[in-house]
Amino acid sequence: MSKWLWKLKKHKQPLIKLNISKAPDGCLFCCIYLTDIYSMPKSRPVYFALVIITIILGLLSRHFKSIPLFIGDILWATMVYFIMRFLFISKPVKFNVIAALLFCFAIEFSQLYKAPWINDLRHTLFGRLVLGEGFLWSDLLCYVIGLGMGVEIERLSFKHKKQNRVNRL
């Protein structure tokens, strides 16, 4: 069963495809992927789709115990980068990387603050996912890796589009 979740009005093509299939043993498989991202413009719907996909992957990484916890931290930073690109689409990549890095580091260092009200907030699902629970130096490295991953995904995705445009000239 395949469903098109979202179409770009301008290009009349599907942006996100959700494919759910059932294996012979009864297991369900869910595949979410961007379709033909190379012909997509750098636009807010593309970054919104990347944010949603990254959130889903991050939540799945916390659900399966076989996936190391640091993968969620990497995906969290990647999501923050895509959110920054969504909000500041006309700004250069360097601006968005610095803004995302400052945001990630500020959230991590805020975990050193242990007031009762913020600890109560951290014990909720929202607080755990957004604010985290405890400061770890290794998380800072995960954030740098996640931001690098976001920049690389964007570079590879939109590089192909630029090359096609040059080849047509």
TrEMBL record:
<dbReference type="Pfam" id="PF10990">
    <property type="entry name" value="DUF2809"/>
</dbReference>
<protein>
    <submittedName>
        <fullName>DUF2809 domain-containing protein</fullName>
    </submittedName>
</protein>
<feature type="transmembrane region" description="Helical">
    <location>
        <begin position="95"/>
        <end position="114"/>
    </location>
</feature>
<feature type="transmembrane region" description="Helical">
    <location>
        <begin position="70"/>
        <end position="88"/>
    </location>
</feature>
<keyword id="KW-0812">Transmembrane</keyword>
<dbReference type="InterPro" id="IPR021257">
    <property type="entry name" value="DUF2809"/>
</dbReference>
<keyword id="KW-0472">Membrane</keyword>
<feature type="transmembrane region" description="Helical">
    <location>
        <begin position="134"/>
        <end position="153"/>
    </location>
</feature>
<feature type="transmembrane region" description="Helical">
    <location>
        <begin position="46"/>
        <end position="64"/>
    </location>
</feature>
<keyword id="KW-1133">Transmembrane helix</keyword>
